[in-house]
Specification:
By secondary structure, this protein is α+β, with helices and mostly antiparallel strands. A 5-stranded mixed β-sheet has the order 1-4-5-2-3.
Length: about 100
């Protein structure tokens, strides 16, 4: 079995192709429904999405308890709206994961 045919790597590649940049204002209705999760810039968005999709409870639980992934707060949502932020995003039903990248 090659690395590319490993199920985790296949899922990761699929999710990577589904990432995109999106204006925060386009996600407001999803934020209002509580389905938007912010991912800390120190984490790899695709890896987090892959672990959530695979229901990998240990790392996801650690990220949740450390605050590295969390539902977007009202304050964060307001700041992104005021700054007209564009975020990296990917859908892992029922969640939309977003990440603000700093360059």
């Amino acid at each position: 079995m090659t690395a590319a045919s490993h199920p985790h790597e296949i899922l990761r590649a699929k999710i990577n192709l589904e990432t995109s940049r999106i204006a925060w204002k386009e996600l407001l209705r999803f934020f209002a429904s509580g389905t938007v999760i912010t991912v800390s810039p120190e984490l790899d968005l695709v890896e987090v999405a892959t672990r959530i999709s695979a229901d990998d409870k240990v790392p996801v639980g650690q990220w949740l308890s450390s605050g590295k992934i969390a539902r977007v707060s009202d304050d964060q949502a307001r700041a992104w709206l005021e700054s007209d932020a564009v975020l990296w995003s990917v859908v892992v039903k029922p969640w939309i994961l977003v990440q603000q990248r700093t360059n």
